[in-house]
Design a protein that fits this description.
By secondary structure, the protein is mainly beta. It has one domain. Helices cover 11% and strands 30% of the residues. It is built from 1 helix and 4 strands; from the N terminus they run H-E-E-E-E. It has a 4-stranded antiparallel β-sheet, with no helix packed on it.
Length: 132
Amino acid sequence: MRARALCLALAFCLKASTADVRVWQDVLTLPTYQEGPPNPNPPFDQFEATKFNYPYTLRDSITDRRVDTAWRAVYVENEYLKCSVPPDIGGHLYTCVDKISGQPMFYANPSIKKAQIGYRGGRWISPMLRTR
């Protein structure tokens, strides 16, 4: 009974909302530093405590080749905000722009470069997140 009441209340709130929300998929082109081939010979040492990856390959060849890459992006927009989420590079919020002032809400990295982070390396993170 409580679940039914909650569903009815949620449906009423959604119908009462007059703001239109658009969601669409598009392409976001960003300069991306290329990753070299993974190391097929991972460390196999039973006494190694820091990089024991067997049977997985190591992704440790980060290059300085910068190529424009088209990434899928999901955009969500309402009357106040326009946000983008690239699912292929982690699915995190990448940009969010306040449509009233035209200012971005936080810093968005202008390029994608993977780093030696994580168990196997070759991960992309956005270390700079500054709010305005």
